[in-house]
């Protein structure tokens, strides 16, 4: 497969024998082909359409090397996902809101950039919005911390302006003709890293909204699960914090209801996110910037696992086909693993 894609990248036109090989390869992965709606009846049409998209991308002068380096990921995940979003957007007849749930190192930012490029081939304009952009202001979070000293970091449920998020997503979903919409943005570097809201970005004519974050779409779970919770939820105080954050998730449901679809970028082992965060910090320090020690990062990540533990919240969500449309496993090397739907 890779040899065929490399040949196309180098300017060779798709041949019928190439397409036949790719059709067989496509149908050999039943989970992924099912997730993208590919059947023996439509595989020829789908592969021909994808090959045209692939060649169009290669011909465009895009300053984003990953599109030309990660050919397998482009072919088996990025292109069919973008096609699926374009089809859903066309069927909806209004802007589509795609939720993306993923933690540190799962590739949310890269995915957003890639989908923006590919969707432009469908003549769709894409906007990336992060849950981080909905943080309450610095002064509001200072007051919040006085009321609940456990909220030492921005990020857990309760630190976001939900009314703002609901308002913005609703405006994006149902825009008035030629309406200019203010998109909130957040700068994490302000106030010695505590961060603060900055001037909004103004947009118009958006077709697809990629709304991403580390717990986008997460729902409250049975509080009894915290009685025997996984590490690092150990002490009674840890358990109470987890229960309170779980209760706080109820306030986010109206925001999640603005999603049309939800994709989970799921590390094959949730503990990988801590390793990835440590590696990212090392890489940053190597460039001459200051960063946290391994111990500080471990404490930092543990804090968020105490708030919303992936083993409890993500696993629970992945078992519910009513809330999740697509799951993509992320391997230890950050590559794409299995792609599948929740079993009905």
What is the level 1 CATH name of the largest domain?
Alpha Beta
What ranges have pLDDT less than 50 throughout 5 or more consecutive residues? none
Main sheet summary = 6 strands, mixed
Note the overall shape: globular
What strand line-up does the widest sheet have? 2-5-1-6-7-8
Number of helices: 14
CATH architecture of the largest domain: 3-Layer(aba) Sandwich
- Work out the helicity level: 40-55%
- One letter per element, helices H and strands E, the order comes to HHHHHHEHEHHEEEHHEHHHEE
Instruction: Enter the CATH topology name of the largest domain.
Output: Rossmann fold
Give the class from helix and strand content and strand pairing: alpha/beta
Overall pLDDT:
94
Explain briefly what this protein structure is.
This protein is an alpha/beta fold.
Describe this structure in words.
There is one protein chain. With 344 residues, the chain is α/β, with parallel strands linked by helices. It folds into two domains: 1-59, no CATH class; 66-340, 3-Layer(aba) Sandwich (Rossmann fold), CATH 3.40.50.300. Helices cover 47% and strands 14% of the residues. It is built from 14 helices and eight strands. It has helices at 2-9, 16-28, 30-35, 43-59, 66-69, 71-92, 108-120, 138-147, 162-173, 236-248, 253-256, 272-286, 294-307, 310-318; strands at 96-101, 126-130, 181-187, 196-203, 208-213, 261-267, 326-330, 336-340. The strands form two sheets. A six-stranded mixed sheet has the order 2-5-1-6-7-8. A hairpin with an 8-residue loop joins strand 3 and strand 4 (196-203). Helix 2 packs across helix 4 (43-59) and helix 12 (272-286) packs antiparallel against helix 13. The chain is globular and about 65 Å long. 33% of the residues are buried. The model has no long low-confidence stretch (mean pLDDT 94).
